[in-house]
Amino acid sequence: MNASMLSYMLFSCLLLSVQAHNCSVREIIRYTKHLLGESSVSCPCRETAVSSCSCLPIPEPGHELACFVEGTEHMLKNNILNHNTSNTIIARLNLTFQTQLDRKLCESLARGNQCQYKTKGNVKEFFNKILRTYQAINK
User: Fold this and answer.
1) Cβ-based neighbours of 122, under 8 Å, separated by 6 or more
2) Is the pLDDT of residue 6 over 70?
3) Closest CA to 88 of 72, 70, 64
4) Which residues form a coiled coil (predicted)?
5) Tens digit of pLDDT for each residue in 80-112?
6) Phi and psi (nearest 5°) for 40?
7) Average pLDDT value for the chain
8) How many C-beta atoms lie closer than 10 Å to residue 61's C-beta?
9) Cβ pair 19, 106 in contact under 8 A
10) Over the stretch 56-65, which tens digit does the pLDDT of each residue have?
């Protein structure tokens, strides 16, 4: 391996670690795992039927942040989890996602300010999507 290849690899690793830091990856993963443990909401999401199950956007690639903001706002407005600790964590996640979107942090997750999705899911599916998304950055 020559010197330029080595410097390229070091630079790439540095960029990835900076993105992971700017994205508050560990914090988001920790909070999301906590919420998944707290959340017993795994009912099926049916947009047409009137149900107590919330349907939250499962984002298309590149629109994660906008959808995470939209989903967490919906959860806060509708008091989905009915638990003060959970609501505090959701509010913190919402603020983190909004900051990342506004400041153009985590560029791979925010190609647009609009939430684009093809499907919606329940609370558990939404949290799992957040978890998988940030775990992928953390690799």
Assistant:
1) 41, 42, 43, 44, 45, 53, 54, 55, 56
2) no
3) 72
4) none
5) 777 777 889 999 999 999 999 998 888 778 877
6) -105, 5
7) 79
8) 10
9) yes
10) 999 999 899 9
CB 99 within 8 A of CB 53: no
Query: Which H, E and C letters describe the chain, residue by residue?
Result: CCHHHHHHHHHHHHHHHHHHHHCCHHHHHHHHHHHHHHCCCCCCCCCCCCCCCCCEEEECCCCHHHHHHHHHHHHHHCCCCCCHHHHHHHHHHHHHHHHHHHCCCCHHHCCCCCCCEEEEECHHHHHHHHHHHHHHHHC
CATH number assigned to the domain covering 23-138: 1.20.1250
Beta bridge mates, 121: 56
pLDDT at residue 8 tops 80: no
Count of positions (residues) in the chain: 139
Asked if residues 58 and 126 have their Cβ atoms less than 8 Å apart, the reply is yes
* Residue 58: strand pairing partners: 119
